[in-house]
Each structure stands twice: as C-alpha cells, then as structure tokens.
Design a protein that fits this description.
The chain has two helices and no strands. Helix 1 packs antiparallel against helix 2. It is mostly helical. It starts with 38 loop residues before the first helix and ends with a helix. It is 31% helix and 0% strand.
Length: 68
C-alpha cells in the first residue's frame, strides 16, 4: 500500500514523448494548440506554397501537423 504524501509534496512524472514543437516540425498534432493559428509560423508555409514548392494539400497538412 502506498504511503500518503505530505500536503506540500508534488510528484514529478517525466514525460518521455517527443517534443510537440521543434525547429523542423513547428506544428503539432494537437488541434487546440495555438501553433495552427500563429501567423509567424504560417507565413513561411504560405510562401513555400506561393513559390510552388508545396501543393495546397501539403501546406494544409503541414499546418494541421499531419505532414511528415
């Protein structure tokens, strides 16, 4: 049986998941995250679309965090 902790103790649980945002993957898969509406992040993706480097579908998937 576990012993109760004191009132001022907060257990720390390490998170071993991949980071949500990195330099190479700035959009995460969480649809509620603000990264999907951040103009500073969307601008470069839009520019790649305008330059013909991405299709509209690819740009949309990148911003949604679904493009690998």
């Amino acid at each position: 049986m576990l012993q109760p902790y004191g009132d001022n103790f907060v257990p720390v649980i390490p998170v071993l998941d991949k980071p949500r945002h990195t330099d190479s993957h700035q959009f995460c898969t969480d649809p509620t995250c603000g990264c999907h509406e951040e103009p500073a992040l969307i601008g470069p993706v839009n520019q790649q679309y305008i330059d013909g480097l991405l299709t509209a579908e690819e740009a949309t998937r990148i911003i949604q965090g679904r493009q690998v």
